Amino acid sequence: MTPKQNPIREKILKGLEISHKKLIKSKKERNFDLVISDNGKVIRIPAKDLVSV
């Protein structure tokens, strides 16, 4: 990776982290399950089990 791309990568990672925090906060406020896929298997995580980072 060139030095020019490194700051862009850092900004993208920071944006993903902020998005993740907002998603967790939203799911907890509305008491919705977080639905994810793990190797093709659908997993539901209840809002009460979500941990904010």
In short:
The chain contains 1 helix and 2 strands. The protein has one helix at residues 5-30; strands spanning 34-38, 41-45.
Question: What is the topological layout?
Answer:
Elements: H1 5-30, E1 34-38, E2 41-45
Antiparallel strand pairs: 1-2
Explain what the structure shows.
The chain has one helix at 5-30, and strands spanning 34-38, 41-45. The chain is an alpha+beta fold and 53 residues long. It has a two-stranded antiparallel ribbon with strand order 1-2. The model has no long low-confidence stretch (mean pLDDT 89).
- The count of β-strands is 2
Overall shape? elongated
* Rg from Cα: 15 Å
Q: How far is it from the N-terminal to the C-terminal residue, by CA?
A: 28 Å
Q: Low-confidence spans: pLDDT under 50, at least 5 residues?
A: none
Q: Quick one: biggest sheet?
A: 2 strands, antiparallel
Number of helices: 1
Order of helices and strands: HEE
Q: Helix/strand/pairing class, anyone? A: alpha+beta
Instruction: Work out the strand percent.
Output: 15-25%
Largest sheet, spatial ordering of strands: 1-2
Q: Assign a percent range to the helix content.
A: 40-55%
Mean pLDDT across the residues is 89
